[in-house]
Amino acid sequence: MKEDFYDILGISKGASASEIKKAYRKKAVQYHPDKNPGDAEAEENFKKAAEAYEILSDPDKKARYDQYGHQAFENGGGGGGFGGMNMDDIFSQFGDIFGGGGGFGGFGGGGGGQRRSKGSNLRIRVKLTLEEIANGVEKKVKVKRKVQADGTTYKTCGTCNGSGQVVRITNTILGRMQTAAPCNACGGSGQQIDKKPNGADAQGLIVNEETVSIKIPAGVQDGMQLKVSGKGNEAPGNGFAGDLLVAIEELAHESLQREGDNLHYDLYISFSDAVLGGSKEIDTVSGKVRIKIDEGVQSGKILRLRGKGIPNLNGYGKGDLLVHVNVWTPKTVTKEQKTFFEKMKDDDHFSPSPEKSEKSFFEKVKDMFS
Ligand SMILES: [Zn+2]
User: Fold this and answer.
1) Which among 65, 130, 232, 267 is placed 20 to 30 Å from 356, CA to CA?
2) Which of 195, 208, 30 is CA-nearest to residue 119?
3) How many angstroms separate the alpha carbon of residue 336 from the centre of ligand 1?
4) DSSP letter assigned to residue 118
């Protein structure tokens, strides 16, 4: 489950704009990648703080968050998903926070200077059964990712002398203009490959197959995207790795249908079961369960098993399992049975007499979704 943005920044809900800014500045300094090289947890905290600040520093977004929580920004499907910020977004945010470009030594804020490159993201799909979605699951997947080859060494870029930028002079009608642009030779990193082993590509990377373990929280939905930070392709030199983006695919269940956090199950019972009542075995996401059928149950009756649905992704409890009772009418009968039913045709016990208290199927459905 996603952490509360206020908790991440260590502030209370009533914090003022300047308190929010101050709290973020503190976290950003604490977890900055320059101070914590190679520390994935610090990088994760750094990103979390940036994401929290991104929302809480914007009055509109903050209001939406205060009202709807994380759901306000996670409308399932496609790219939406979890934490849309990458490091570039975060560093471009620093301009406002630390004033001017240079606040963080060499770490390219608004204004140029050296940039740490980011490796490209990798994308995979993970197919999950409804049972796995209901209980949460840890999946181990094989990923082919580019990593820095052993033996690759770097030297200062000769084109920009390590500054990561080059000065261009252009003639305009206003005279000669001097502009700084990222160095093309090194992509702005200030570094170039010195030596690389055989098999490594031009950036000194090789493809390596790795097993990555992905923790999938209970309650995810088809089409959602999870992000495993730092498990994408590595970047050369002092760059940092891209992310592994995991698209969730939900496999159809043979007897349970999902609708949000609720599940539906169609139960077919015989005419005799409907008359006599009894118990029936049904499927749930945690195995088979026997439920009681009252005598005289009507076709269309919906039995609600509270909490037997899917856990809510944002921690708002669990959905229900709705069992729809369908009375099965025999399509053929024996001669003897036919005689029996013909005799019953005029029997008062067999003629429909719905009680006023019994709502129609459509009224019940209306209640359920209102
Ligand atoms: Zn360069």
Assistant:
1) 267
2) 208
3) 94
4) B
- Neighbouring residues of the ion ligand 1, judged by CB less than 5 Å: 157, 159-160, 183, 185-186
156: CA distance to ligand 1 center in Å?
8
- Compute the distance from residue 108 Cα to the ligand 1 centre, in Å: 14
**Cα 315 to middle of ligand 1, angstroms:** 48
Name the token pair of 208: 């390596």
Alpha carbon of 329 to ligand 1 centroid (Å): 79
Q: How far is the CA of 112 from the centre of ligand 1 (A)?
A: 12
Residues in the chain: 370
Say what the pTM is.
0.60
C-alpha closest to that of 156 among 185, 191, 184, 113: 191
Domains, the chain, in order of start with CATH, read 1-115 (1.10.287.110), 117-148+206-251 (2.60.260.20), 153-195 (no CATH), 256-368 (2.60.260.20)
Q: CA-to-CA distance for 24 and 10, rounded, in angstroms? A: 9
Rounded to whole angstroms, the Cα distance separating 246 from 269 reads 41
CA–centroid distance, residue 117 to ligand 1 (Å): 12
